Input
Amino acid sequence: ELAEQALPLAGAIATKRNAEVVLTTAVTAGDRWVDDGFVRQWESEEQAAVESYQRSIIERLQQQGVHAKAHSDWGQPQAVIESVADREGAGLIVMTTHGRSGVSRWTLGSIADKVLRTTNTPLILIRPTAEAPVPEAVRQIVVALDGSDLAEAALPAAERFAQAMDASLLLVRAVVPPTMLYGGQFVPGGLPVLDQLEAEAKQYLERTAERIRKSGLKVGVAVAVGAATDVILTASREIGADLIAMTTHGRSGLNRWILGSVADAVVRHGGVPVLVIRSWPRLSDEAPEAIPVVGDVVVRPPVLTETEQATGSPRPRRGDVRPHRPERSPGR
Output
């Protein structure tokens, strides 16, 4: 039932874009260590049940005028989803996600997380709630930007989506006070600085919006001071957004990509579907995460310097010739 809550939006998107919905179901293989015929019979019955279920969904969609077909493969869900998306040349993956363990805390479902960090296809994540039903149409789209190339990677997909759905865009940028970036460190964050940051942020959004308006789309801009998540969610609620579009990026770890904290919070608390585009920062001489950018002003961390030791000779490096010292007897 959870997965089926993605159907109304997927059907509406397909109808607007004159596209086809490809239903995808992953079936987990049985235990092949036991080969007494029971496992093969179970797999055959499971396959038949999946195909029957998919036919019922296809019939329901066709009654609504939506073209649909289905695939069912054996394997892990994220691998099956990615494989089918690649084979079909899918332009969009739509799926629901749900809560996990924890006291009243929702985290991104493991399947959605794995799909997001392995696919290059734009992904719409839906977290259905009783308070916020899944919209069946998209008329207002919030696009979260921060002035970086990474965030702007969401614009092409958002523009295409808005064109297909006859929707308008609201470009949103948060101005994070420098005092929020460095706890315990003095950095300028008074009203003059914030006024400058807000002005620069609005100029950036207006330039971006003007470029997009040339394609015929209706585009607005919004700038606010505060944490990125709060600003995005507030703007979304104020205009009654049907979709939030944003990029997410890599974090620390052994080559493992996880959903960025802002995107995670937006999916968790947004109450509307989130179009997430995976993007990677361009390599540069300076790591972007080491130099936060607020507005168009670079706020550099305090400089840490090392001083040479004042006393003592330098420690010999490997390969240096050490002076000979006579061996000491065990008794000395």
